[in-house]
User: Fold these one by one.
Assistant:
Number 1:
Amino acid sequence: MRQWDTYQWVFPHGDHPCVVISPPARVANSACQTVNLLACSTQRAARPALAHEIILDQVDGMDWETLVRCDVIWLANKSELKLHRGSVSPERRRAIGRKIIRLFGLWLE
């Protein structure tokens, strides 16, 4: 498991793809049993991404164009992540990072 890998996880709202966003040191540390995730939709994206979303696709391990929400960060047990789907492309990693920084107001002034 690595940062930016995509998996399947059972969220409180159902079984959906997800993106691991925890720092690499946390992901690699066996003493840390949890990782941070972003939730993805299970249905094909039928609209453009909203201000809090990014579209991922097959290059990122999704079955089709899929919306990923960047405004909510989930905490999951590593052992609960199933079906390694792939890894988010470098271009979309940058887009997700920029979006999270903007949405959460993490930029420096």
Note: The CA atoms of residues 9 and 81 lie 5 Å apart.
Number 2:
Amino acid sequence: MAEEKTNWIQRTRDYINELKMEMRKVSWPNRKQVEGTTAVVIFSVFAFAGYFAVVDFALNSGVQRIMKFFSK
């Protein structure tokens, strides 16, 4: 039982040490890069929302006309 506990503790320490080493290798973006990519994401979200609104309106109008035509 004590050996299992020691093994678990050592594996946890190894994991944390490896995690620290990997985090030192990460290149974090600077503020300008974050602002630029954020602007692209926001623009893309609104562009896709507009596109899907137009497509939704067109499909809805088409289905409504078909339903109206066949319900006469």
Note: DSSP finds two helices and no strands in the chain.
